[in-house]
Amino acid sequence: MKSKIDGVDEEQSSKQQPNLCKVIGLVSSLLSLSYSVKVFHVKWQLIRSKLEELNSSLTSAENCDFSDNSTIWELLPAISVTVNDCHDLANRCVNLSYSGKLLMQSDLDVIMSKFEVHLKSLAEIYNAGVLSQGHMIVVSKPGIGACRDDMKFYIMDLITRMKIGDPVMKSQALIALNEVVQDDDRYVKIVVESEDLIGLLVNFLQMAETGTQEESLKVVIVIAEFSAYRNVLVGAGIVAPLIQVLESGTELGKERAAIGLQKLTENSNNAWSISAQGGVTALIRICSSSDSREELIGAACGILKNLVGVEEIKKFMVEAGAISTFIKLMNSKAEASKINAIEFLQIMASGSESILQTVIRGGGIYSLDQVLDPKASFSSKTREIAFRAIDTFCFSSRSSLITLLGYGFLDQLLFFLSSCEVSIQELAVKATFRLCNTSEDIIKAMGDKDFMPELMQLLDARSFEVQDMAAEALASMLCVPRNRRKFVHEDVNVGRILQLLEPGEGRSSNKRFLLSIIMSLASCHSGRRKITNSIYLKNVEKLAEADVLDAKRIIKKLSTNRFRSILSMIWNS
């Protein structure tokens, strides 16, 4: 891998570098020894954590030249003394050669405090941005197909620049990081495996510099795309700063933070992390603000939908005013916001009668009905979602259904039955079918609105599902005598139903519904007459000969009534 050195005083660097390498070696040796200690477990665990942090900080400086800043070289002897003292304590703990437990605990506390001071001093040096582009080895980006070691070395170089570089270098390193993680998933794995880098991203999100914040969010979003890595981000403490940006960042920062949180909450076990940091309240506030952009509201809704599955969080949403917020959002002029609001309320109301009634009382049904107004210029997607929501909100109770019908729903439904949009037409047929299983009064109203001619047209629809629902809905409508008389009055209707029963044509499930229609028609005098006079009666007879039970019943019914008619004629003569 190629590299270049700009503005480095090689002679001075070569004198100082061994000192740094020596201290790093001492820290590494002490780390290894610490794992052999079997006493004062908690104390040594804390010390080991400090040693790992110190090792990482010193390693970051290996490829750097601090010739213009002597502070770090002045710090190295003190670090070396502390490490040697700790090494001595470790040996005594391993050999159990200490004079007393209390004294050893005190010594370990003192050594831990010294490490904390060293780490603080290093952090101050690094945060001062002592390195600029001219003082650092710049590692070239590995080419396509590079080996993992080269890729890892490049990432480690970026980490160094982000840790101890000046603001410009930090920004350039973040941009370079974004480029590689978006181009190659292997880099994402290396990033996740580096605790230092995830920790840096968490810190950058809390910085006041918005450019660094926004660039860091891009990396977080890429990592959060991978389900397996989301818990790593959450474990590193990413949630709190993301919510902080969500509340007080730039518009772009807020949107990116929301997208990141949406990805994280796709793993349901992360839901509590968002709730515990006040995320639910922040998200509802975003959705209720008239200043929030449509993209931000969409991502916020997505997060809330991911959280609804946790019953306790769902209850908190209700208490926090989510229902009224989203009912208002249903009336938004922005279609995307309207869609998000409808979907969210539909999820919230599922399985909860109290929430359902709250939505209805809040004017939810009226808002849905407005979406289905043929004169309104809503997209097919919005209307599809409105139809599905009506299925959830209105068919569970008669009062809700009556409210819906009072807004002119039957006229709207009739319009969409003849829609050129297949998806809309299917939903309209489904709603019609559902209505036919409600009450006789509603079925009569549908007959008066001329639903039957539209359903007849749909018996020839391309979709088998539409054909079946149309036939079944028609069969239900013809159970009402008034509708039956109206249907028979049109000469073509009976013949068309019989024609569709032609053997070899259509499907068995569809024929079952058609035979049900014929059975209903055969229950009235005018219907029987038209059936017996039709040239297509032979289709029913052929099905009866093939042992189709419903067809045999129809033939039997027709024959009985014909025999009775003959007897009646003889008797009257």
Write the layout of secondary structure elements.
Blueprint: E1 3-4, H1 10-34, H2 41-60, H3 71-95, H4 101-127, E2 138-139, H5 148-164, H6 167-183, H7 185-193, H8 195-205, H9 210-224, H10 227-235, H11 239-248, H12 251-264, H13 271-276, H14 279-288, H15 294-307, H16 311-319, H17 322-330, H18 335-349, H19 353-361, H20 364-371, H21 380-394, H22 398-406, H23 409-417, H24 422-435, H25 440-448, H26 451-458, H27 464-477, H28 481-489, H29 491-499, H30 508-521, H31 525-533, H32 537-545, H33 549-572
Antiparallel strand pairs: 1-2
Helix pairs in contact: 1-2, 1-3, 2-4, 3-4, 5-6, 5-7, 6-7, 6-9, 8-9, 9-12, 11-12, 12-15, 14-15, 15-18, 17-18, 18-21, 20-21, 21-24, 23-24, 24-27, 26-27, 27-30, 30-33, 32-33
Structural commentary:
The chain is mainly α. It has 4 domains: 95 residues; 154 residues, Leucine-rich Repeat Variant, CATH 1.25.10; 87 residues, Leucine-rich Repeat Variant (Alpha Horseshoe), CATH 1.25.10; 147 residues, Leucine-rich Repeat Variant (Alpha Horseshoe), CATH 1.25.10. The protein contains 33 helices and 2 strands. Helix 6 crosses helix 7 and helix 27 packs parallel to helix 30. Pfam families: DUF7032.
